[in-house]
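BUG: 3D viewer hangs when loading the predicted structure for this chain

Environment: internal workstation, default settings.
Expected: structure renders.
Actual: progress bar stalls at 90%.

Input used:
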Amino acid sequence: MDELRRALRRLAKAVAVITSSYEGNRYAMAATAVSELSLDPPSMLVCVNRNASIYFPLAAGAPFAINILHHSQREIANRCAGAVKGEERFLQGDWTNTNLDIPRLGESQASIACQNVRQIQHGSHAIFIGVVDEIFVCGGVDPLIYLDGRYTRAQALEL
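Structure tokens produced before the viewer hung:
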């Protein structure tokens, strides 16, 4: 397990905040285990630990949004990674709702709202598959990156 953790620290990933709304409550979780799945139909997947507060709403079938953070949104990532709990995670940032009534971060690089259509349980986590319902894009491409246990910024290489 330690060797796997060491290996995965070398995998750079964009930081996203997964959001959902269920029974009148909003949920948010910072994540890097997010990926595109298919362009036909347009689909995304998120991996969520069963101990995360957002797990229960997603397991119940609630829709979700993937908010891809800009490099300047480190504090929002920290808040949603456990620095604060519950509704306090939404006290910073420009939060609005999608057509599916899911919170989305207005100034994130992109937000992708999804209908939650399938889940796969595996070990400590579940994979939730969502069919894309709405897409929002804002500003240039400059994501917050998680690498080697810390946040960083991408640097474009000249070709």
